[in-house]
Amino acid sequence: MIIDCHGHYTTAPKALENWRNAQIAGIKDPSAKPNPADLKISDDELRESIETNQLRLMKERGSDLTIFSPRASFMAHHIGDFEVSSTWAAICNELCYRVSQLFPDNFIGAAMLPQSPGVDPKTCIPELEKCIKEYGFVGINLNPDPSGGHWNSPPLTDRHWYPIYEKMVEYDIPAMIHVSTSCNACFHTTGAHYLNADTTAVMQCIQGDLFKDFPTLKFVIPHGGGAVPYHWGRFRGLAQEMKKPLLSEHILKNIFFDTCVYHQPGIDLLTKVIPVENILFASEMIGAVRGIDPETGNYYDDTKRYVSATANLTDEQRYMVFEGNARRVFPRLDAALKAKGK
Predict the structure, then answer these.
(1) Are 76 and 93 in contact (CB under 8 A)?
(2) Considering 170, 284, 295, 316, which one is annotated as catalytic?
(3) Is the pLDDT at 32 greater than 90, yes or no?
(4) Where is the Amidohydrolase-related domain (predicted)?
(5) 274-310: b (≥16 Cβ within 10 Å) or e
(6) How many Å from the N-terminal Cα to the C-terminal Cα in the chain?
(7) Do residues 260 and 224 lie in contact, with contact meaning Cβ atoms separated by under 8 Å?
(8) Per-residue burial over 178-215, b = 16 or more CB atoms within 10 Å of its CB, e = otherwise
(9) How far apart are alpha carbons 77 and 115 in whole angstroms?
């Protein structure tokens, strides 16, 4: 199987965005606040949004299953308060669940959390548990910066986050460390803020000793790890100066990188620098970079081409990237597939 560990519902029907705009307007004018029941999206609308977009490209490119979560840039945890985020997360997660029910062989969910700046992360636990227990989701997205580019939250190694980690360990689910929209003009959302966060998350884990407290905790760092693989020597050297163990022991038993890197040299570097056991196939298709590369004539986000073409992987290692590692990092995904005889 070709398992894509990083997909977002970026093509949801327009009614979702309209409802969200009304919700945001209702923050200042409570009389304009919409009810979740006001949002009407039919199964046929969901099917059309998926069949003409993600599913079409999956079939064209040869991938089988996508771990599917709400649109990352729409999470916007900095907007409103916890009640706003909680309502919005519940709506977005339910839509992803409905997609997974309509296309059970092609999509399985990962949850958006109802994070809110300055609010105790334990408030996210009811939504997390609902998505795992009722929806059969296999992971979560964790935003290390709910402020939207101002970085007001403690580092990921701080006890502030431990309520989430305790539940992750209990349910044996990984978290993709994924920020949302930047409301700081200094940081372009997908070109800077996302990649900054990927790099920052890894550096925080190097600085701390989180995995001593949670030896089975698993993080997926998206977008190829930001700057990390390119500067692996820098991170190894910094860890050495901090008297930390070798990175293979300090973080690589717990941190994994996806292949959302949109050119062949990037994938070649990733697969040369990072151990193959720590790389998961992903594309984030119909995401940040949707166009066609004039140098190749192919879509930038057709990452399967790069993984298939790199000379750095054997056939056995390619299987690990495409399927084996995802089954290991997402045990609930593996169990769901085995239940279907896959």
Answers:
(1) no
(2) 284
(3) no
(4) 3-331
(5) bebebbbbbbbbbbbbeeeeeeeeebbbbbbebbeeb
(6) 9
(7) yes
(8) bbbbbebeebebbeebbbbbbbbbbbbbbebebbeeee
(9) 6
Tokens representing 47?
């099917």
Tally of CB atoms within 10 A around 164? 21
82, 123 Cβ separation under 8 angstroms: yes
Q: How far apart are CA 310 and CA 92, in angstroms?
A: 36
C-alpha–C-alpha distance, residues 65 and 62, integer Å: 10
Q: Which amino acid does the sequence have at 120?
A: D
3-state secondary structure 69-93: EECHHHHCCCCCCHHHHHHHHHHHH
pLDDT in tens, 3-19: 999 999 999 999 999 99
For residues 227 and 198, give the distance between their C-alpha atoms in angstroms, rounded to a whole number: 8
How many Å apart are CA 279 and CA 135, to the nearest integer? 27
- For 97-147, the pLDDT digits (tens) are 999 999 999 999 999 999 999 999 999 999 999 999 999 999 999 999 999
Distance of CA 48 to the CA centre of its chain: 24
Q: How many CB atoms lie within 10 A of CB 163?
A: 16
Residue 184 has pLDDT above 90, yes or no: yes
| 162-171 helix and 125-133 helix, angle to the nearest 10 degrees | 10
Nearest to 288 by CA among 302, 301, 299, 271: 301
- In this prediction, residue 334 carries a pLDDT of 98
CA-closest candidate to residue 258, choices 331, 156, 330, 151: 330
> pLDDT (tens digit, 9 = 90+) per residue, 38-87?
999 999 999 999 999 999 999 999 999 999 999 999 999 999 999 999 99
241 catalytically annotated: no
> Contacts by 292-295 with C-beta closer than 8 Å and gap 24+?
293/262, 293/263
